[in-house]
Amino acid sequence: MTKTMVIDVAKCTGCMSCVVACKDEHVGNDWSPYAKPQPEYGHFWIRVDGRDRGSVPKVRRTYVPTLCMHCENAPCMAACPENAIYRREDGAVIIDPGKCDGCSGLGTGPLCMAACPYDAIYFNEELKIAQKCTLCEHLLDQGWKEPRCADACPTDAIKFGDEDDPEIRELLRGAEALHPELGTKPRVLYLNLPKPFIAGTVVDAGRNEVVIGARIVARDLYTGDVRETSTDDLGSFWLRDLEWNHRYLVKVQADGHPERILGVYLTDRDINVGDVML
Amino acid sequence: MGILDFYYRVGADVTWDLLGAAKSSATLREASGDELKRAKDAGESVRVEYLPSGLGGFGYSPPPLEVHVKGNRILRVLPSHFPNTRVWEIKTERGTFTRPKKSVPHPQMLAYKNRVFAPTRVKYPLKRVDWSPDNPNPQNRGKSKYVRISWDEALDIIAEMIKRTIEKYGDTTSILVQGDGHGQSGFLHTLHFYGHMLFDKLGTGWTQQIRNPDSWEGYYWGSRLAWGFDSTLGEPYQDGAWDDALQNAEVVICSGCDPETTTAGFSAHVSHLLIALREAGVKIIAISPDLNYTAAVWADEWIPINPGTDGALYLALAYVWIKEGTYDREYIESRTVGFEKFRSHVLGEDDGIPKTPEWAERITGIPSWKIKALARMWAKRRTSLAVHYGGPKVRGPYSHVVGRLEAYALAMQGLGKPGRQFLRFWMSTRANIKELSPLPMYPEVIAEARSYVPRTEYAFVKMKPPAIPLIKTLVPDAILNPPIRWQGSGEQHSHTEDMFEKFRYPPTDEHPGIRMIWNENSCYTTCWHGYKFIEALRSPKVEFHLVIHPWLENDALFADLILPALTDFEVEDLTYFARSEVVGVAHHNKCVEPIGESKSDYEIHRMIAQRLARELGRPDLAEAFPEPEALLREFYERTLAHRKYGVSWEEFRTRRKIVVYDHPTWEEWVDIKREHGYGAYDTFMTKFYRGEARLETPSGKFEFESGMVLKYDSDNPERPPVARWIEHDDLPTSPRREKYPFMLLSNHPRYRFHAQGDEIIWLREVYKVRGPDGYLYEAAWINPADAEKLGVKTGDVVMIYNELGAVLAGALVTERVKPGVVSVDHGSRVDLLSVDDRIDRGGAIDLLMPNATRAYGPEREIKVPEQICSAVLVGVRKVDLDELRAKYPESFDRKLHPIVGPTLENYIVQGGSCS
């Protein structure tokens, strides 16, 4: 009976319903022994990290709801000097508000906060304890099916359930961790995490017209993979889902024009090559 | 006066014949269903209440919040779930589409605890410390603070001021009542209109402020001339619209529209419709100065355009279609009138200026090659245009021109042809349809689920004399520059001919004009050319300014007397939901005791009526405001839930049922459509396209040349018979741009509802920009290229200014806005550094908006008294906070709430604490 959360980033619109629902559940409500009340402001047990991508007019915005990952290999647990952080049978990682003393004697601030690579732990100044997402276990233990953030999501971008549930199992097939390289084995996994794009518009400068159907060829100079697309009705092209931090050689091939090499682009960010004037 | 007099029959054009068309069904859910189980699971003695989930007002809501209450404490606020309700399905060749069995409201509704317990709540009646009937000190409105008084004293003052008005001026027509528009959406208690009703019952008249069409100005003042649609606010009927879109559309152009923001705030989230469009393979193109919240996640392409210049784009599209012969000639010939004159204008035969893509590029900022490509795509692919009401394009100067030219463009491509529709994301049927819903619904539910509402028509229908109409957009001029003359009452559901009706205020030279303001919304300053309104509110002509509002904000800062209204959570009421296609009725008890001595809007007016009844010897006034439960029962017993499904009031109230009406199955829906003469994927406009329906224009056809204008106002260059390009002072091509180089875009806010909800802590800490001084500023979106020129980075404080004054905002440097444009959402709370210097720290951007008299001059008749709330020219510069702190120490040295900013305490006289 291991619980997991799968967040489909492609369905997140940044509406902040999850953020507000989490605060509605936890601010001013004492759910001991699961959690003490969250302060009126300043904590985001779930937050939505938004990122602008590209440049005018090839711009998208991606939102990544981020919360405690309930890691199987949780750095916070390893760091806690009071053994106040425990893992439940269902996999949830909980800071015991009765045991946590905010590392008050150490003069360091809570060590779990410093240990968490996802910045998911907050310090409650008033109660002098570290706090974070509990997956609303106080509700799940009473028979609720999902935590408040999932309940409040208008697009069901946040799905929660048992790992053995067929629907969850299906979702998990394509899911990945945020920063898997850290090796913390999160129980919160993601679908459609943003991957970089190279976009632009192809224009026949002489005719002052967009070029429709021009071929855009991008060669990944690290792997040799070739990605292709063509310009649409508006002369636009989008090479999506490229690899981060690879280098791509990009060319434009359009009927009646010599091949144009646009250059080599490093995908450390999303790229708008601008208007390619042939 | 009986209880029946309290009600207004809605949907008058929906006939009883429809009832036979298909039987409805309803989910008769008891609170012993899933919710109560969940509530019980969560702990003993938790009760479930169903609260309104929107701030659209007018007595109806999106599907209700599910509120868990323990004792006198709001435990949690959940979205609406209706797991047992049958929801619509649209079956197409591209797949079957449906909606989720939950309705998630705007996040501010889930954060409603923040509003109920806001530190800005008005807890007691408050009087401006230096106001008295004999010594009003109007010059101190906006400057001096408030003291607590008793309800008794407050009622004395109101009765005294009304009696004085009658003695001094002979009647009460010098009292301007602003009671309209948006607000909390309880059925009875939190409505805005009771001031109108009070003076109507008093019988000695009042000045009725008529609410202008504030979010769809261009459609109201412009598009109606081309296609009518008076009953649907100037936008084409939505009957069956989404069946066609999902079956046939290849492209949907979101023209400035942002349903993730606007529809979510009005009707709860509709992301499922955008997901459906994408799953159907529809390409979504966004045309807007900003990459708005919908475009940022759902659009395939963003075409940035200069604010308010969409008219030039439409003219250039028409130019390409004419030159290339790619418009629907047959449609133009058979379904429209006056095209030749428009064609002549497009080609420049009348003014020497061909409206080429190159011409439009200079105005719109869109490269001419992209305009040509868009024109060809639009002609080649089945393209629909989508709005909520309207985006920024129809909310700026001369938006009526934009509205008409957009309609022309749609007509040239055969509006109504399969896949070529005008789509609205708002699903409420109330002001949307002719006879059938936009998504599958039973006609019986449309006609009868919400047959009666309280007399909200006071809030948007022009009343008969002795009421004197005054359009909201001209209120400041009516006070400052009387007499004023204009055309068009602004009444929302008026016939197009109303646009040509002539008005004057005051009605005669002898009339005293506005002497008292009865303000039930407290949002003049945040929604309508605010600095001018502030000047008017501070005029010595205004002897008394009464504000009735739950929060001390905005207009209340300029009040003489403030009465503490309350929130829906503090009263028993009905939640009647029909702002989306999920329709039903629910009941809620009081969740918490009223904050302080606050009372509902209804109770406040009832108390005033009772006081006047006593003092004027008019018992009928008291009777006009019956006991609330009697009204709730009466309404409830008129719903289908009672009449058809037999749930008694007592049962409904005590066992707290919620009734949600099912949607028909697809097969039932196809039958319903067939019975009304519609094919499965037909819309109303499809019928027009086929020649089976007429429009409400004089010719019954689409009118490039308006028969109405020809008849009533044929030689007016501001509004000619055929819409044409009009240069004006707020275009990017205007010489004023040398002084004011930025184009200001102001949208409906993503995390507020107009001016409502700006005090919500949990959202403010997400979207406001914290300045170096720690103050949370409203965000000003600035493109990185402009930011570099201005020397600002995210978090810096900028001043946005024009001739009217200045507003401070927190820079948010982003690629989501095109260069040359600064974007600040409207509705942030007013927090003036100085009334005299006209400088605001709160970011209430509508303070900077001009009104129509700027273009016309106050002495001339105003032909189109439009509201301007976007697309004007401004200057932007980085501010030196130290300089401002030195100049305005009082504002900077106040003790503020770290997230909310100014609170009640900041406006109370020392020693007069209201804690």
Structural account:
The complex is a heterodimer of chains A (278) and B (915). Chain A has 278 residues and is mainly beta. Chain A has two domains: 189 residues, Alpha-Beta Plaits, CATH 3.30.70.20; 80 residues, Immunoglobulins (Immunoglobulin-like). In chain A, 13% of the residues lie in helices and 33% in strands. In chain A, β15 and β16 form a beta hairpin. With 915 residues, chain B is an alpha/beta fold. Chain B has four domains: 117 residues, Single Sheet (N-terminal domain of TfIIb); 218 residues, Rossmann fold (3-Layer(aba) Sandwich); 261 residues, Dimethylsulfoxide Reductase, domain 2 (3-Layer(aba) Sandwich), CATH 3.40.228.10; 173 residues, Beta Barrel (Barwin-like endoglucanases). In chain B, α6 packs across α16 and α11 runs parallel beside α16. The two termini of chain B are 41 Å apart. In chain B, 63% of the residues are buried.
Relative helix content of chain A: 10-25%
Q: Count of helical segments of chain A?
A: 6
Distance between the termini of chain A: 60 Å
Q: What is the succession of H and E elements of chain A?
A: EHEEHEEHEEHHEHEEEEEEEEE
* Rg from Cα of chain A: 23 Å
Helix content of chain B: 25-40%
Question: What count of structural domains of chain B?
Answer: 4
Instruction: Please give the number of β-strands of chain B.
Output: 40
Shape of chain A: elongated
Largest interface comes to: A-B, 55 and 62 residues
- CATH class of the largest domain in chain A, named Alpha Beta
- Give average pLDDT of chain A, whole number: 97
CATH topology of the largest domain in chain A: Alpha-Beta Plaits
What name does the CATH topology of the largest domain in chain B carry?
Dimethylsulfoxide Reductase, domain 2
Q: In terms of structural class, how would the helical and strand content of chain B be classed?
A: alpha/beta
Beta strand % of chain A = 25-35%
Task: Specify the biggest β-sheet of chain A.
Answer: 4 strands, mixed
Straight-line distance between termini of chain B: 41 Å
Please tally the helical runs of chain B, counting DSSP H or I stretches of 4 or more residues: 33
* Poorly predicted tracts of residues of chain A: none
